[in-house]
Amino acid sequence: MRSALMICALAASPVAGAPVLEFPVDCTLGTTCYVEDYLDHDASEARKDFACGLNTRDAHGGTDIALLSFDAMESGVDVLAAAPGTVIGIRDSMADTRDANVPSNIACGNGVRIDHGDGWHTQYCHLKLGSVSVRQGDEVRAGTVLGQIGLSGQSNHPHLHLSLEHQGKDVDPFALEGAETCGEDTTQMWSDPLPYYDTGFYTAAFANAVPTLEDARTGAKRRTTSKPDQPLVLYGYFYLAKPGDRLEFTARGPGGTIFGHDLDLGNPRKSHMQAYGRRAPAGGWPAGFYEGTVRLMRGDTLIALRHSHITVRD
Length: 314
What we know:
There is one protein chain. Mean pLDDT is 91; it is low at 1-13. The protein is 4% helix and 38% strand. The protein has 2 domains: 33-171, Glucose Permease (Domain IIA) (Distorted Sandwich); 200-312, Coagulation Factor XIII, subunit A, domain 1 (Coagulation Factor XIII, Chain A, domain 1, Distorted Sandwich). A hairpin with a 2-residue loop joins strand 5 (110-117) and strand 6. It is mainly beta. The strands form 4 sheets. Strands 1, 2, 4, 5, 6, 7, 9 and 10 form an 8-stranded antiparallel β-sheet that branches.
C-alpha cells in the first residue's frame, strides 16, 4: 500500500461523452467533510480502492462523502449536481433513521438520479427527508442544489453516497480505467483532482475496558450496550498513520459531552490501536444513547473519522 498523498491529473475528455464532475457537496474536504469510502475494485470478498488501498467496503459501488457530525446534518449541508443533465428519478419519502433493516431495493433512501447523456448517470443517496429540491424532468447544471445530506435508507451516519454509471456499469470517478495502476497516473473525472490518503480506520467502537490489538482486530471487546456502573472506553483501530498524526476522541451522552481527549501518535505502527475512556461517575451513567467519534488528523486536515454508539441500560 502507498503511503503518500496522491493527486492525479484529469485527462482532457478521457472518454467521449464522459462528464467532467464538480464536487457534489457544499463542504470543504478535510475540514467539514471527508471521503469515507471509495468504490471497491476487488470482485472477491476482499476490498481494494482505486489506489489498491483499504479505503472501501466489500462490493461498495460508489463514493461516500461524510459529514463530521449529526449536528452538521441538522444544520443542513447541500448536495449539488456534479454535472449538467436531466433529472430522471427522485425519492423524498423516507425518514432519517439508523435502520439496518431497510430493503436493498430502497437502500439509497431519498435520492436523485440524473442522466448526463451518452449512457452516463449519477445517483445521489441518503438525502434528508423533505430536502429534495428538484423534480423529474428538470434540467440542471453543475452545482444545482438537489437536496441535503441526511440519514435515509441504509445509513448509520450522515453522508452522501454518489454513484456514477456508464451503460449500467459502475465507474469510479477517481480512476476511470480501473485500479490496475494502483493510483499511478490514474485518470480522475473531477474538474479539480481530489487528494487521496491511504491512512484510515479498520473500526472504532465502545468497550468496557481498554482492548488489546487482537481484541480490536476481532471485535471481541466491542459493546453496543452497557450497564450504568461500567466504564465507557472508546477505541480506534487504524492503519498507516504517519509520525505526528493525532487522534481526537469525543464521547457524548444524554447529559452532554462525557469526555474529549487528543493524543499525538508519535511513531505509530502500520496497524495501531489507541483508546480513551472514563470510569462510571457516582450514581452511574444516565441511561440512554451515547455516541463516540474518533478523528485522525494530519496537522489541521481531517484524514479519517469513525462514529460508534452504545446504549446504557439499567
